[in-house]
Amino acid sequence: MDKKGILLVNLGSPKSTAVNDVKEYLDEFLMDERVIDYRWIFRALLVRGIILNTRPAKSAEAYKTVWTDEGSPLIVITEKIKKKLQKVVDVPVEIGMRYAQPSIETGIQKLVDQGISEIVLFPLYPQYAMSTTETVIEMAEEVRKKKFPKVKINYIQPFYNRDIYINCLAESIKEKLPENFDALQFSYHGVPERHIYKTDPSKTCKIDDANCINSQVDTHNAYCYRHQCYKTTEAVIAKMGLPKEKTIVSFQSRLGKDKWIEPYTDETLETIPKKGVKNLAVVCPAFVSDCLETLEEISVEGKEQFLHGGGENFHYIPCLNDEDRWIEVVKTLCEEKLNDFYLV
Ligand SMILES: C=CC1=C(C)c2cc3[nH]c(cc4nc(cc5[nH]c(cc1n2)c(C)c5CCC(=O)O)C(CCC(=O)O)=C4C)c(C)c3C=C
Ligand SMILES: [Fe+2]
Ligand SMILES: [Fe+2]
């Protein structure tokens, strides 16, 4: 019987808050053709000729505000998830990051060193996107073919609509919601709009905007990131018994001048107080672990934008992180794949 193991994959962080380390990380990240999907020469001109001249210093300052004694929150939390999962499953668990260290290759190597030849790889993103799930799988396959051709990898699919995840997220939000709030905002990481019309044609958004965001449309292509975000939202608020009128969906972290999927979180935060939303709770379900984008961009910058727009109380709801109920979900999703190895 082949020995099995689990690899949890997250996005990754710079190795320190030094500007040069942030620059190295951003170079690897933004030169990924699934993140900035221009032809190599145009991507290099944009990233190395423009973005990397100014962004690393700005991002390094932002990272300093969230960095902990143990390191980047994203890495520290992913390690905590690994440790808790390891206590409840009977196969070895390792972590790997799509960018920087520990890399996906390092994670696979650690499993192989323990005699493992069948790996369940879990991209820790609830919704599918070219710049998340797809690039993780591409990288893992590249590494596997080049360095570990005898290893089999079974990939966990996006779980944006799985009942066990929805129940877990709904319960977690419910527990953390303040007593009085005018609206609950779901802020998802954005992507350039063209990303949802791209990649493999079977994964492309094929319907108009209104239907894409209408989560009732079941015939919609299962791999549209925007649609999956609306599906997650709809399922969670149904589970919580929250009226749709009390919820807002928006997309954060826009970079550059291209059109990204709308509405934008920063603009929404500035304008909703004028529409009567004075007490706001915000949750970020594109992330399973807190990171720069939630702890700085939402909790600090987002709060300022909301207060500046006339808001009064801003309440950030943390990600699932290493909550026990989330570890149970991770365990279940991993065990499903460990058990169906021969069905793929
Ligand atoms: C074109 C640029 C980007 C796309 C597309 C993108 C998609 C995307 N990203 C995440 C999750 C995370 N992104 C994080 C940081 C981050 N993202 C971008 C750019 C794009 N992301 C940049 C330049 C950065 C670095 C920070 C900065 O300079 O602003 C993080 C946090 C990492 C950390 O160390 O804490 C996460 C997580 C998703 C889910 C996604 C598409 C759906
Ligand atoms: Fe990002
Ligand atoms: Fe769509």
TrEMBL record:
Job description of the protein: Catalyzes the ferrous insertion into protoporphyrin IX.
Organism: Chryseobacterium rhizosphaerae
GO biological process: heme biosynthetic process
Subcellular location: Cytoplasm
Entry binding sites for Fe(2+): 189, 293
Family label: Belongs to the ferrochelatase family.
Main location: cytoplasm
Catalytic activity reported: heme b + 2 H(+) = protoporphyrin IX + Fe(2+); Fe-coproporphyrin III + 2 H(+) = coproporphyrin III + Fe(2+)
GO cellular component: cytoplasm
Enzyme Commission numbers on file: 4.98.1.1
Listed name of the protein: Ferrochelatase
GO molecular function: ferrochelatase activity; metal ion binding
Keyword set includes Lyase: yes
Short name of one Pfam family: Ferrochelatase
Keyword list, A-Z: Cytoplasm, Heme biosynthesis, Iron, Lyase, Metal-binding, Porphyrin biosynthesis
Family annotation (InterPro entries): Ferrochelatase, Ferrochelatase_C, Ferrochelatase_N
Pathway per the UniProt entry: Porphyrin-containing compound metabolism; protoheme biosynthesis; protoheme from protoporphyrin-IX: step 1/1
